[in-house]
Design brief:
Helix content: 25-40%
Order of helices and strands: EEEHHEHHHEHEEEEEEEEHHEE
Number of strands: 15
CATH architecture of one domain: Roll
Radius of gyration: 20 Å
Largest sheet: 9 strands, antiparallel
CATH topology of one domain: T-fold
Length: 340
């Protein structure tokens, strides 16, 4: 998550049969956000909807962004006591939940490991085995309580917790989608697509068809390199779902002829080395869940990722991997709706 934010633009997408679709776009979390929604039955002016979305994204940025040096997260990571806001406490509790569910494979208290490898909030130092051993000993959710303790004056003090450092990048964008979607549901929106790097969608698009989301072909390239190639297109079938793709093809570097990608196994401390190239996860529960599970899949690799997706009724998945002959192969769970 990076810093925000310019005033979002509003674009009319079309009016048919009493339905008025608009698009609200702007800058958030180091990139752009786009919200497409049907204003039918919504009693709030579209300008107010835009302002409310941007206010919510600004709150997320000033609370949870590790790239905003003045955010509550950055101040907490620097060892400062911070106000125990509901958003900060909720994000921590959600992160702890996914750490427990994943058996430590999704660990938002492993921020120092990401920093050490150059995929966090600091430049890489390419850690030695000895440095990694120290970081593994000092970090991790296993050292922390399920809920952050709050002082009588309403603060969270990192000192009694051993000054942990947190990084919510594995969940925060999905969670941001959920918060924006929750606001839209409250004001009566039924058809929506919220795209903040990750996606939440529900209902129909302006053409009266289910929303569809392209899945990138996992070819190594820089994040700003375009155009992207699509490997497939997922069809929402009009259902509400979070959709997230995680992969090792856009954030990586090469050192001494070896690729080091941004997916770190918080148990071993090393970037993963396996043949799973990308994991697209669909969750009927939340975009935060899709976000966390996609990261989880990329940590554990192909076979465990398949088993994980098949074990949960709320999940569907699409995995792209490298076969032994070097070809790119794919696996989709039975309910993952790919367009022909």
């Amino acid at each position: 998550m990076r810093k925000l934010l310019l005033l979002g633009t509003i674009l009319l997408l079309g009016c048919t049969g009493g339905k008025r679709y608009v698009q609200i776009s702007g800058y958030a979390q180091g990139g752009t956000y786009t919200v497409k929604l049907n204003m039918e039955g919504v009693g709030v002016p579209v300008e107010q909807v835009r302002d409310s979305i941007e206010a919510l994204l600004l709150q997320i940025d000033t609370t949870l962004s590790g790239y905003n040096r003045n955010s509550l997260l950055s101040r907490f990571n620097a060892g400062e006591s911070i106000p125990a806001t509901p958003l900060f406490l909720a994000m921590y509790s959600l992160s702890y939940k996914y750490w427990e569910r994943s058996g430590g494979k999704v660990d938002c208290a492993a921020a120092s490991l990401y920093d050490a490898w150059g995929f966090g909030f600091k430049n890489s130092s390419f850690p030695s085995e000895e440095q990694l051993a120290v970081l593994l000993e000092q970090g991790g959710m296993d050292r922390l309580p399920a809920s952050l303790p709050v002082t009588p004056d309403g603060l969270v003090d990192p000192a009694p917790l051993g000054y942990p450092r947190l990084n919510y990048n594995a969940i925060a964008q999905g969670y941001s989608c959920d918060l924006v979607a929750a606001y839209l549901y409250r004001i009566g929106v039924k058809d929506m697509l919220v795209d903040i790097g990750e996606i939440w969608c529900d209902g129909l698009n302006p053409s009266g068809k289910p929303w569809s989301v392209g899945v990138d072909r996992p070819v190594d390239q820089a994040p700003d390199q375009a155009p992207r190639e699509l490997e497939g297109i997922w069809d929402s079938q009009g259902l509400a779902a979070g959709v997230v793709t995680s992969g090792n093809y856009r954030k990586f570097y090469i050192r001494d002829g070896r690729k080091y990608a941004h997916t770190i196994d918080p148990v071993s401390g090393y970037p993963v080395q396996h043949n799973l190239l990308s994991a697209t996860v669909v969750s009927s529960q939340s975009a935060a869940e899709a976000d966390a599970v996609a990261t989880w899949c990329m940590v554990v690799g192909l076979e465990e990722a398949k088993a994980l997706i098949l074990s949960q009724k709320a999940l569907e998945g699409y995995l792209i991997y490298s076969a032994e002959d070097g070809s790119m192969q794919e696996w989709a769970s039975p309910g993952f709706a790919l367009k022909e």
